[in-house]
Amino acid sequence: MLVKDPLTLVYEAIWGLLEADSSFTALVPASCRLKLTGQIPRFPAREIRQPDEWPQVTVGLFSLVADVNASSDGVVLGYRFGIWVSSNDQRLSYYSDQRYRGIFPLAWVITRAMSRWESAMKALRYQGKPFVVSCNMLDSSVNVRVGNFLDQLKPNMPGWLLTWGGQVNMYFEAASM
After folding, report:
1. Are the C-beta atoms of residues 123 and 35 closer than 8 Å to each other?
2. How far apart are CA 109 and CA 105, in angstroms?
């Protein structure tokens, strides 16, 4: 049986939290949830989008930091991620089509959906064992030049803004690696 790696489990759990929130799914159409897994190797390279193709949301990787010396019997792995949104609009909040739109409503539903993220992450199991030891919020000022991720998005998708960032710290026993 094919077993998913723990990083994929964390990534899917983040999307699971977002998509379990009915306000998030009402505000962000399924076609606008840009998941970096599956068969599509990158975002569609189109600068002109239709009105129903907004807002767009993606979960991106900042970094993976492994510390093989953190423990004599295991490895610690830090997985930093961010949730970016693009509303294709500079307005922070406005009313359209009988609902609020803009960056503020998106940030709010994402924050609400992620409010239980620590317990969800700690409930994950890999090879039958829990592996997430802690979760930390990241300062969203890391929006400035985080690796190549934003550079890859910006040429084709204007207006991306980091709304939420976190780090999931994982521990794996050396014997199970």
Report:
1. no
2. 6
Question: How many Å apart are CA 171 and CA 130, to the nearest integer?
Answer: 9
Is the omega angle on the peptide bond into residue 55 within 30 degrees of 0, that is, cis?
yes
Report which of 17, 14, 15, 8 is spatially closest to residue 32, judged by C-alpha positions.
15
Confidence of residue 144 (pLDDT cuts 50, 70, 90): very low
Look up the pTM and report it: 0.81
Question: How does pLDDT run across 47-95, given as a tens digit for each residue?
Answer: 545 656 678 888 988 888 888 877 788 899 999 998 888 776 666 776 6
Please give the C-alpha separations between residue 150 and each of 34, 47, 85, 177, in angstroms, as whole numbers: 14, 15, 11, 32
CA 157 to CA 63: how far, in whole Å? 22
DSSP assignment string, 17-42: HHHT-HHHHHHS-GGGEE-SSSS--S
State the Cα–Cα distance between residues 137 and 147, nearest whole angstrom: 18
To the nearest 5 percent, what fractions of the chain are helix, strand and coil? 35, 35, 35
